[in-house]
Amino acid sequence: MKKKLIYSIIICLVLILCKYYFSNYEIEYKLNNYDIKVKYAKKRFYYEIKEGKYHYNFDFYKVRSFNKTRINKIEEISGDNFKCIYFKIKDVDTYPLCYENETFTDYNLIDSELLEEYKEEKVIIDKTKNDFSYNNNLSDDEYIALWNYKGYILMNGKEYENINIFDKDRYDNSLSYLYKNVIYMADYNSEYEYNKLYYFNLLTKETNSFDLGYTLDFDSYFVGSVGKYIYLFDNKNSILYEINTKTKKVKIKSNNETGYVKYENGEFVSCSKTEFKNDKITFDVNNSIYNYELKDNMVYKSINDNKKIKQLLSKDSIKIVSEYKNEIYYYLGEKFYKYVPNKGSEEIFYNYELNFNDSNTMFVYHK
Fold first, then answer.
1. Is residue 6, in this structure, part of any structural domain at all?
2. What's this model's pTM, rounded to 2 decimal places?
3. Residue 47 lies in a domain
4. pLDDT at position 130, please?
5. Cα distance between residue 63 and residue 45, in whole Å
6. Which domain covers residue 335, as residue numbers?
7. 291, 301 contact by CB (below 8 A)
8. Are 176 and 240 in a shared domain?
9. What is the Cα–Cα distance from 277 to 235, expressed in whole angstroms?
10. Do residues 75 and 145 share a domain?
11. Where would I find the beta strands (DSSP E) of 165-206?
12. pLDDT, block means (10 residues), the chain with 367 residues
């Protein structure tokens, strides 16, 4: 009987933990004259706040607690041409949500003394002496690899390091692909064709290579990855190769004789050669819940939970390189930035070469 009682107690505790610490939930409630909707799923909170014609939304990533997370206070901040709300949630770093000229706008873009106390002081680096300068402001879990024509400048935490991989300068490194924490590259020591792939581990800083067993033309591109495989299409010879990242074994996946396949909706399906040669299709499955739209040389962001709500994110035509959760990494001119909703944009590095080589491929990885 005692054992049964103990088992019953354990089962009840597990059920309580699942219900209050792991389970998803949705709630709706009112706070003063604001209608608030909250959704929690997979360590992500999504909020919508509505008051009259103003409709705000935001999200953040955090493991749920025993109690459901609620906004407990909303303050209003108003200026000549803008209206903001500043909400407070226990143990969450919050920030103003604003409309400027009737457009939902990132508060960092609004020039007003009323909002200065919510903005973080930005670090300015001296760009007069060096072609490259690093701000030392990445976390230990963030890695950025910038092509340096023979390899990469690897940035992580407070440090950066120049790592050369090839003997010759290569202006373009577009024949490179990041799979997990490893960058795969064509053999840039070769001229017109290559039969070897190099791979660079961002965590260990080790470089290795392996023979493909085939000769590929440099008129080729990485199609993407599925599971442990990455795919490389030789455009000149119309051959799709499948590379096992575990064993480094390579085989032909598609060619003129066998026909062509693409990865779509979780399976390989037949397709035409034209899709590879002209459309340059990819296999990468984009699971992002964020959308970035360029309109009138400005960038707007929407979230899949409600795509009707669009927020002005940048008044410049920025080039987004990567995203992680609700953060983005982008560059504008010779400057590379990280954008975080509650902090705005922070300059990561300055690279003079970006003025002349914006096709330079950069990679961002999070542990």
1. no
2. 0.90
3. yes
4. 78
5. 9
6. 126-164+327-367
7. yes
8. yes
9. 6
10. no
11. 176-179, 182-186, 193-201
12. 54 47 85 96 96 97 87 95 96 96 97 94 62 92 96 96 94 94 97 96 97 97 96 97 98 97 93 94 83 96 98 95 95 94 94 78 93
Give the bridge partners for 34, in sequence order.
Answer: 31
Q: How far apart are CA 226 and CA 254, in angstroms?
A: 15
Q: Is 299 found in the same domain as 243?
A: no
The answer to whether 94 touches 88, Cβ cutoff 8 Å, is yes
With 0-12 / 13-18 / 19 or more C-beta atoms within 10 angstroms meaning exposed / middle / buried, residue 226 is middle
SS3 per-residue string spanning 136-166? CCCCCCEEEEEECCCEEEEEECCEEEEEECC
DSSP 3-state assignment of 128? coil
CA gap 108, 202 in Å, rounded: 32
User: Residue 331 has what pLDDT?
Assistant: 93
List beta partners, residue 27: 38
Structure-token match 């493991």, residue found: 63
- Beta bridge pairs of residue 324: 327
C-beta separation of 323 from 307 below 8 A = no
Please spell the DSSP secondary structure of 233-260, one letter per residue. Answer: EETTTTEEEEEETTT--EEEEEBTTTBE
Question: Is 11 within a domain?
Answer: no
DSSP, collapsed to helix, strand or coil, labels residue 16 as helix
CATH number of domain containing 235: 2.120.10.80
Which pLDDT value is given to residue 137?
A: 86
DSSP class of 109: G
Query: Looking at the structure, do residues 184 and 231 belong to the same domain, yes or no?
Result: yes
Pairwise CA distance, residues 69 & 46, whole Å: 11
Q: What is the DSSP track for 298-355?
A: EEEEEETTEEEEEEEEESS--EEEEEETTEEEEEETTEEEEEETTTEEEEEEEEGGGG
**Both tokens assigned to 366:** 């999070």
Per DSSP, 70 falls in state -
Q: Which two tokens stand for residue 114?
A: 């009323």
| Alpha carbons 243 and 226: distance in angstroms, whole number | 10
The tokens for 191 are 């001229």
Same domain for 254 and 223, yes or no, is yes
Counting the structural domains of the chain, the total is 3
Q: Which amino acid is at 12?
A: C
Decide: 197 and 185 in contact? Cβ < 8 Å. Answer: yes
Residue 2, φ and ψ in degrees, nearest 5: -65, -40
Q: Are 57 and 309 in contact (CB under 8 A)?
A: yes
